[in-house]
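Note to self: keep these together.
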Amino acid sequence: MFSTDRSVAPGGLVVHAPWDKRLARALVRPLVGTPVTPNHITASSLVIGLAGALLIAKGGTAMHWGALLFMVSALLDHADGELARMTGQTSRFGQIFDVLTGGIVHVALFCGIGYGLRDSLLHSWALPMGIVAGLAVAVIFVLVFELERRVDREAISQRSVAGFEIEDVMYLVGPIVWLGGLVPFLALASVGAPVFLAYQIREFRRRCP
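Structure:
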């Protein structure tokens, strides 16, 4: 049976799926029964995400297209999992491939932002700040994956507010680029991502002593 847009959490509370997962589910539903597999979608997410990062690194108007490609990649990052659940094609390899893809794309994104902002107010600090933010996000991906593997997935799943999760903040990359707000975004990410990483490390140690 296909997954629905809501689930029942412990205590009988109805939890609605985030908006991006609902959209991803609707997009991949026509692919059920076709030769397209979840790993094909993951690979597409990787290629599109890297292309977006390269365009952002070029700077100028190319950044606008790069931001759009990153948002598409982020949506596909959910679509592969939805197709896997719909078709029963979940696998250990697919899960690892998905996590690695997410980490690689985010590292490339922030490095691309840093390189693209090398002539901005951040100057020579831009690229190192991008590397720090990207690596922190990548490690967060790995920690969350490992937590889901060791602990009940539902017990550690992110709470959604009005259909949005914490990770959905990355969809703001598009509007931020289009509105010219990458400099403060990178500055905040270079501090915020390591701080959130420290929180995830603490959670990992608490749940997996």
